[in-house]
Input
Amino acid sequence: MALPAPQGRRSSTFTRLLRHGFTDPQAAGKLLDAPELSSVRSDSVLLEALGATADPDQALRGLVRLAEAQPAEDQQRLLSTLVTAKPLRDRLLGVLGASEALADHLVRHPGDWETLATYESADLHPTTPEFEQALAEGVWGEPGAQLSREDALRAAYRRALLGIAARDVCGTTDVAQTAAELADLATATLRAALEIASEEQPGDAAGCRLAVIGMGKCGGHELNYVSDVDVIFVAEPKDGVEESDALQAATRLAARMMRVCSDVTPEGTIWPVDANLRPEGRNGPLVRTLSSHLAYYQRWAKTWEFQALLKARTVAGDPVLGQEYVDAVTPLVWQAAERENFIADVRQMRRRVVANIPAAQVDRELKLGPGGLRDVEFAVQLLQLVHGRSDATLRSATTLDALKALAAGGYVGRQDATALDAAYRFLRTLEHRIQLHKLRRTHLMPEDEQDLRRLARSLGMRTEPVDTLRKEWKWHAREVRRLHEKLFYRPLLDAVAVLEPGEIRLSAKAAGQRLEALGYEDPVAALRHLEALASGVTRKAAIQRTLLPVLLGWFADSADPDAGLLGFRKVSDALGKTPWYLRLLRDEGAAAENLARVLSAGRLAPDLLLRAPEAVALLGAPDGLKPRGRAALEQEVLAAVGRAEGAEQGVAVARGVRRRELFRTAAADLIGAYGTEASPAEEDHGQAVDAVGSALSDLNAATIAGALRAAVREQWGDTLPTRFAVIGMGRFGGHELNYGSDADVLFVHEPREGADEQEAAKAAFAVANEMRRLLQAPSSDPPLLIDADLRPEGKTGPLVRTLASYAAYYRRWSLVWEAQALLRAEPVAGDAEVGRRFIELVDPLRYPREGLGEDAVREIRRLKARMESERLPRGADPTMHTKLGRGGLSDVEWTVQLLQMRHGHELPELRTTRTRVALAAARDAGLIGEEEARTLDEAWVLATRVRNAVMLVRGRPGDTFPGDGRELAAVGRYLGYEEGHVGEMLDDYRRITRRARGVVEELFYGA
Output
């Protein structure tokens, strides 16, 4: 057939093929010219039927292949029946156009087309008995005579699948009926596989009663074309057989049954049988007795396991035992909703499912993604478990039947149920047609245009099929998400419900009134932010419209609602197009409130967040706000430095880690101070202060370790000519850093054996300077300022000394204040042995054997008094300065340190770098009274919290309360004072520190 017409015009055949939906008319024309189709090539009925299929080109190719595979005597009978019998024509061509895999089966078994020619009433909706009969004939009858039992079962299964697919693509059955037929076929297949196993292992079959319980979609009568078939095995011994022997026999039978279905043979495979829903999962025994199952469920089972049991039904094996199992576990299923944290457990499981989807696939996931099939199933199951306890009509294992029952009982609005039903049917049909093509397990929407076209045409879309399909899919997914949130997965729903009627959706006028009522100082600017956040038709805008009424309330529950709203807009602008961010706010109930608290509590945390907005994910992770510890941080930093191409790149990564961990620490601190609806504010302020100090000290130590490694590798490779250590001093060594603290350190080194001492010293000096430069270099990440001024001779002395040099200096020149400073000395990075030897060197200085003489005590008191008079900033209120003021940090620390130097040699408990630990040890040793110790501890904790609060609120360090009213109120909120109680906060501070000063006067000055 010559397709190109003379003078360049297309032939009428070419045009006709295009009109009938062929995408490659030239190739189709050649196929129609094939000798196998010579008797029907001009039949208009055939061409019309091909054009009605999902993929006319594929259907024609499959027909030619099938005709070629026929024996010569049967070829004409196939073609004649095809053009004269409409049922066969529609079924066969419909299957060929929808499924390459079933076309391959027909070519391999060319006589199976005849199973589609019959059209009996029983053929319309076969059930398990009809499938069992068909499989039995295929395995043990004439069709399977030339094949092994396994191959015969595979061929018989595909033959039965042909009929299901034909009814599906021709519209004889709807998606729910198709899913039920697939589940019935799976049931029949499991029974045949178990019979084959029993036939091969008659001794095992004679020794046990084995029941196979269908779970998941098989149990729920809603199976896919290609899916794991979930089962649980339960067994009991037959009379006269020991239980252990029976279980071993049942295990062998079950394992063989599974292999019969899942092994790959010349006839391919059927599907995997998955028994991982059994007690203890893959770690538990494959087969248990009924009593063993019950013992597990009654004692150990998790909530999701009862949710899974909702689908349980007997599918194969001993029907009496199977029913006993179902009867025994059913009451447990309907008691699951009474378990502690039931709702949270179910929601968390759903979150884990979504979180495990690869980011590149989340937007194509029909089953597990947002707006997918699992959303409908989880919502329905949760409602069933909650309400099915008292309403037995809800206890269907089939999703659509259960949804219908929920609507009938008034548990779901009828309109919502109808919309969910339609969306679920559409998505399941998509899933079926995608899997049918190659009979592969997948839930992803295809990306190839031709695949999308075939999929759309299989759903009856003929005009612009691909665009129509995409639009309809997205619409249904949005509907599922909207309804799913409404029914099940909106942890914020309760919070929304407490608002006044009409406030869930805000008009511009209502928003302005609401903002003013909530205390927003600039409602005009706030309205602009709201408009930017809530306007539009994107998924992002829709989610934010739902969240905003609640967020506005959370922001208003802070000292600076305007800053919270502005910060939310900035984060949303930066992250709003990332699916995980929107899911975080929507699905993680705590995440949205945590974000609101962090954004509206001050400047530091939002500034850190906006430099790398992806850190917002920490607010929703279960352990996202827990400090990671020095070892984990150091491991991450050193690994990053090791991968870096140079010192600057390595330290840049290390500083990025530090910025992330600063945000983690600040966010946890703020949320603990404010509290949330799910978690009250932290009551043990001392513990919170210790947690912040330790976290900041750990991350600074890890950052310094990374900078040290980077500086050494840049010039000397892996080995420096001297062993180098960094000693933490001051608050750093004491694990008491504030957010704005510098890192006080000493640098010490010890030349390696055989190394030139001058070269070693030059190397150590270069490393120390390079570390300081790298950590303070301009960057979007906050600098880490290294302060080495506590070294011998201060700023005028060498930056780095050897151990011998330190020993010589301290032996000859050391002053009492230097010994006092060494009370905080602790190795933080570098060579651990050098650090340990340094501590051994300074211990006799800071904990003198004979204690402190009176001259040394007088000198310490003189220095303290001088510091109070000379170092307090001009104009500062001495009653309100947290560091140098009356009863502040310096007062408490010098008092404790004096006790340490006097008694540390004889009392090892005092030998700590931590102020609160040393104070508690002094109390326990009777050096200070219980009440006095409590007074000093309370003042020290409060002053530390104020310093932390000032940094969190202002974004820069400060030792006094802010002068700005809003900032002062924010500090008050952090400290636990409600709005309007700033005066009370200041009075409390003065009172607490005044009492502490009284203790200091007595204990330190000896008044």
Q: What stands out?
A: The radius of gyration is 38 Å. The longest strand covers residues 229-237.
